[in-house]
Amino acid sequence: MTHLETAPETIDLDRRRARGHVGATRIVVLVLLVVGGFLCLMPFVWMVRSAFMSESQIFTSPPEWIPDPFTPGNFSGALTSEPFVGYFLNTMVIELLVVPGTLLSCSLAAFAFGRLRWRGRTVVFGVLMAGLMLPYAATLVPTFVAWQWLGLVDTYVPLTLPAWFCAGGMASVFLLRQFFRSIPRDLDEAAYIDGANPIRVYLQIILPLSKPALLVVGVFTFFAVWNDFLNPLVYLSDNAKFTLALGLATFRGTFSSEWGYLMAASTLVTLPVLVIFFFTQRQLLTGIALTGLKD
User: Fold this and answer.
1) CB 99, CB 225: distance < 8 Å
2) Over the Cα atoms of the chain, what is R_g?
3) Could you report the per-residue pLDDT of 7-47, keeping only the tens digit for each?
4) Which residue(s) pair with 252 in the sheet?
5) pLDDT on residue 231
6) What are the start-end ranges of the H helices in 197-257?
7) Residues 200, 291: Cα–Cα separation, whole Å
8) N or C: which end of the chain has fewer CB within 10 A?
9) Which of 152, 166, 174, 145 is nearest to 98 (CA)?
10) Nearest 5°: phi and psi at 257?
11) 152-177: per-residue pLDDT in tens?
12) Which of 199, 186, 188, 215 has the alpha carbon at shortest distance from 282?
């Protein structure tokens, strides 16, 4: 009798302990997230405050977080000391060539691997995915020699043409393939019964249903090209063809650096990325979340 009377009290005590454990876990996770967010945000805050400071203020010890005096002239100086309008136009030319090429080539490859049935499909896909483990530096020199032999160094061709052949885009192929596999195959079969061919299925069924995944690939590709420093550095030598990422390096010389101008220009270069992410973050999260689903 005593055991039966104390059983509900024991259950209530266990439940309270479990709720307390969950609450403590949430607090620890929240603290870790706040600390991690603070550490990730610190470089951006440092960049913005330095953009409004003179060079003598940037590296004062202890550091000053509020500019005094306020120096907005760094922005006008950065824009006039280097042809940043030209750098921006050069970057947008590459973007307009790379993003559509990546979307087309990677979506076609993902359609072939995810929706079509052909012998050796899994083996070929596995070999291509294994190529992701190959360091980029291992192929940099041979690739450069090949472009130099073709006489295309110091042009935008090495930076744009590979995107139309899915070169270096296996991560995007994998993402799109996973999304394509989540689309019911009944749609394909119904279209084939009505006389559609694979190209028509790809254009009229798969692509319209894959807008979230395509947006993710497009935005990530845009960010990758926008921030790319190594490839323009390797293939471009004419200052008039420099991109924004490469143009930022011109503020750092061998013996001196214009830190105020560099921070101001870096802030301006970062703003478009933040704006794009701000307006597309919901669609990006939706596309990434749906990518892991499979029927």
Assistant:
1) yes
2) 26
3) 565 666 556 655 656 667 888 889 899 999 889 889 888 88
4) 257
5) 93
6) 198-201, 207-209, 211-227, 230-235, 244-248
7) 23
8) N
9) 166
10) -140, 140
11) 999 999 999 999 998 878 889 999 99
12) 215
